[in-house]
Amino acid sequence: MLHLRAVCPPEQTDQAIELLRAHAGTAHLIVHRGAAVAPEGDLIEVDLAREAADEVVDSLCALRLDRTGGITLEALDTALSDAADAAEEAAPGEGADAVVWQELLGRTGEESRWNATFQAFLVIACLLAAVGVITDSPVTVVGAMVVGPEFGPLAALAVGAVLRRWDLLRQAAAALAVGFPVAMVFTGAIVLLGDAVGVFDTAAIVGNHEVDFVYQVGEASFVVALLAGAAGMLAMTSAKSAALVGVFISVTTVPAAGYAMVAAVAGSWDRAGYSILQLFVNLVGIVLAAAIVLILRRRKQRSGDLLRPLSRG
């Protein structure tokens, strides 16, 4: 279940209430007359079955409440109520399969912005990957995968392309275009300094090691990236967000960036080149698969809309 709050101009409150009462997927409708201060108006609260949320939010946006008032959504972990159970039963489909598009836009928009925190996480992740490569530690490389924040902008690229939100597309592309080069340059400088003072031995990467999979790009790399992108977008568009951890540790984006810098400092330009190619293959595969998942889910949801009951009957 989701909890919706809407700040509504008084002259539109009755219309909004009627809309919410008529929908089969709503429960616990509450109205606070004159409770909203900025902007002024009435406060409406209602619990929604997740599979009904997208239609309800679109209907409220059609009343321009997103402009004249405000609409917020938050997840409910527990709802002990026969009315809530009835709403979930009446709403078509399964909650885990439902996509709340406004929620997805808000989430990807927030996670795709380039800022100091995003850059710091990416730098730390690349440094962890570099240390894992130098010490031949797969565990450290996996840790770098988990720390890396790059899936947010990659998901935003897919969402922006499918929904034609060019502002989101530009924002995500800028985060990646700035974030990775800055992180790689910083990582290269730290590795070079560490190699000069004897903390790191970049020459150790020459030979066969457990972490060589990072730069060994091939068809399997693209397949893994496709699978990870599909799983990641399924997790973001459903209630199965815990699956994102598996996505983070299945692709070699950050590790490839870190390996490239270590190989460059060591003078192993062939490995550095393959690592950059690995990075590119993973980025493209993730975005492509994520976009395909979004297209398929959007088509399925539109088909379901044709059969969706509009009221409690």
From TrEMBL:
InterPro entries: DUF389 (IPR005240). Keywords: Membrane, Transmembrane, Transmembrane helix. Pfam families: DUF389. The keyword Membrane applies. The chain crosses the membrane at residues 116-135, 141-163, 175-193, 213-235, 242-266, 272-296. The keyword Phosphoprotein does not apply. This is DUF389 domain-containing protein.
